[in-house]
Amino acid sequence: MDFNLTQEQKQFADALRRWVEKDYSFEQRKHIIASADGVSATAWAELTELGALALPIPEEQGGFNGSAIDMLVIMQELGRGIVIEPYFATVMAAEFLKKSNTHADVLEQVAAGEVKLASALSERQSRHDLFDIVTTATKTIDGFVLNGKKTVVLHGAQADKLIVSARTNGAPRDTNGISLFIVDTGATGVNISDYRTIDGYRAADVAIDNVQVGKDALLTEVDAGWDVLDAVADYGTTLLCAEAIGIMEATTTATLDYLKTRQQFGVPIGKFQVLQHRMAEMFMEMEQSRSMATLAAVKVSSDNAEERRRTVSAAKARIGQAAKYIGQQAVQLHGGMGVTDELPVAHLFKRLTIIELTLGDTDHHLARFVTQPGFKNAA
Amino acid sequence: MDLNYTAEDISFRDQVRTYLEANLPQDLQQKVLNHKRLSREDYVRWHKILAKQGWVAPGWPTEYGGTGWTPTQRHIFEEECARVGTPAILPFGVNMVAPVIMAFGNQAQKNHYLPRILSCEDWWCQGYSEPGSGSDLASLKTRAERDGDYYNVNGQKTWTTLAQHADMIFCLVRTDPAARKQEGISFLLIDMKTPGITVRPIIMLDEEHEVNEVFFDNVKVPVQNLIGEENKGWTYAKYLLGHERTNIAAVGRAKRELQFLKRIATKHQKNGQPLIGDPVYASKIASLEIELMALEITVLRVISQDSGRPGPEASLLKIKGTEIQQRLTELMVEAIGPYGLPFDPAFLEGETEHSVTGDDDAAPLTPYYFNFRKTSIYGGSNEIQKNIITQMILGL
To answer: Closest-CA residue in chain B for A288?
Structure first.
């Protein structure tokens, strides 16, 4: 048993941290949010240069074949800096290609920072159930024609290609009959409306009207996309859990600093026991979350799908709960300053809040944990 | 990063498991698994079995009879004991007074006491708390005055766990009332049979006699029973706080109790279905199970640190561990519904074979719930633990 990071992982983390501190400051981030694109081409080039894009990509496609643990390290650092670039969207979507073992050329482009990807999975009625799909894909002579509407696609407008889940068979909530496609955002019939999200990201609604794709756009056997979709969602969830740890670290550090410097009644407010104990609770929430993020990163690649689902859902449920607690208390302990736009704490809080809502909220994952067959099996 | 045990650790685990399954007497195991009360004899019996195997004090240096196991192996051993349902090895001798004797005692004290702790010849209890000194332990008033070759001890200790069975008590006593409160305290070993000692039971809310008041009325204690130097007792007590706390979270037992909880939540019904299928109740179990999964990893993270011994992180383990233990008992009571009402002490003491209601699983659970409110109070209340986190980790 070994919880230590390797030398390489530490170096990677240090390099990213230095980059965030030097080139992705709170002020720079503000400018990027306010820009027309909502993302930074410079930052993307620098992330590529640092190897962050190549990290999860297989060696055959010019990557470093990084594990989920390697990604845990990266996501934590990006979380600390609340980096809003389409990194998560791209690497999660790339995982579809890795898991389906297709489109090696696209993976190569991802590793080189030439292509950005996004996952168009949610629909208006689907809430957190990714199998709840009414978008259709109908077979044609040389491929498929897609119709439907995908909602709140993270960094959909900034992506070059989308992974789209569509129904080739079955009823709207069946897990059978789902197929996965890769679609160019510039394809005829794809209409993307871009908007801001409350945490400084961009998302989009994607209208898909009679979009023609070739046979090679299909990622898995027809009708059999669910297992890959479920596994990739777990991978994405694991990345979000890791990101949340980095944000929690930044949040608790900022709050601790504030408690040590802000004076009231002639003393730093950190001298008051009621605030000290709140801070101790935040610390414990963070450490329990760190344990779960680690466990999820280890188990997300498990061959045992139930073990993977159980662990990832446990992690997301636990971290969602901690994210809320830490975010809310950090704002409370900052007093009036906590509810302004001026300090990082409010932005950290917003990102933590949105992570809780992304790829299944706490209740969703608690319910998923309970419905795993093993839950009821008492030894 | 690798969360798997090594092949060596797994073979160690199998060896421990095989031994425990073969050597744990079934009647003891049944008492533990079914939440019955243990007698002095029960504790001593199991202690002696483990002592014979050489496993009663895994954390001791090998020169004194320890096992030389790694922190991971010790964790595995604790997990396996909890899994199979062994009685606890009471901490007062093996884990509390012994490390102090080893670190600060003289050769004669080591030679005399340590083998007797190992063999359970002496049953130890802890004389720390007093009626006026709970969380503020250093304010203690029990007085020891030097009188030739003896200390003359007067005062009162309280919350003394199982003192009614004890042969020896280790006490913090005040030897210099003029000094700053932490600096006038000494660490004294006292024979419970000394004239002037009176033990009076405190009956707890589950009507169990688990703790006591211990009164000292002109008790003459030989000076050779002083540990280390006079007035250095607080330092020794603090040393103990940072020692032997790897199992403070009691994750192994919580895992076993979670399985028990699921079993009774399957047996008891709601709306004509097993309770565990009720979404509201199931989500409570799930939250608890997830908290336990997290704590298990947190414990392993602490163990895998270089020293293998928790510093101030022990406070986190204590808080989370006790919260989980208490929540388990709370959900057990919730699971049995109306069967939480009947109270059957005779059954708990093993005087009757079956409980008055016939539901022998359910009978001990409400007393268990009430009994376990103590866990967030003893060993430094959870609020004191938060103070420790605040000061030692957060630097506030």
So the answer is: B294
* B89 within 8 A of B47, measured Cβ to Cβ: yes
Q: Do A256 and B266 touch (CB under 8 A)?
A: no
Task: Give contacts of A 272-291 with B, CB under 8 A.
Answer: 273, 276-277, 279-281, 283-284, 287-291
Q: How far is CA A77 from the centre of its chain?
A: 13
* DSSP track, B62-97: GGGT-----HHHHHHHHHHHHHHTPPPPPHIIIIII
Distance, in Å, from the CA atom of A146 to the CA atom of A209, rounded to the nearest integer, reads 7
Contact between chains at B320 and A378 (C-beta distance less than 8 A): no
Alpha helix (H) residue ranges in chain A: 7-23, 26-34, 41-50, 68-80, 87-100, 104-111, 226-261, 273-299, 305-333, 344-357, 362-371
CB contact under 8 A, A279 and B394: yes
**pLDDT 10s digits, A33-92:** 999 999 999 999 999 999 999 999 999 999 999 999 999 999 999 999 999 999 999 999
* ipTM metric: 0.96
**Main-chain phi, psi angles of B230, to 5 degrees:** -60, 145
Distances (CA, A) of B264 to A101, A379, B89, B269: 46, 12, 27, 9
A73: Cβ contacts below 8 Å, ≥ 6 apart:
A5, A9, A12, A13, A242
Instruction: Please list every residue in chain B whose beta carbon sits closer than 8 Å to the beta carbon of residue A273.
Output: 387
Task: For CA atoms A268, A273, A276, A278, give the dihedral sign.
Answer: negative
The shortest CB-CB distance from B304 to any of A2, A69, A366 is to A2
| Nearest C-alpha in A relative to B10 | A1
The pLDDT > 90 percentage for chain A reads 98
* Residue A247, φ and ψ in degrees, nearest 5: -70, -40
Which chain A residues are Cβ-neighbours of B387 within 8 angstroms? 273, 276
Looking at CA atoms only, how far is residue B289 from chain A in angstroms?
9
pLDDT tens digits along B372-393: 999 999 989 999 999 999 999 9
Token code pair at residue A10:
């530490």
Note the pLDDT tens digit of each residue in A212-221. Answer: 999 999 999 9
- Collapse the DSSP code of B239 into the 3-class scheme (helix H, G, I; strand E, B; otherwise coil) and give the result: helix
Cα B99 to its chain centre, rounded Å, is 15
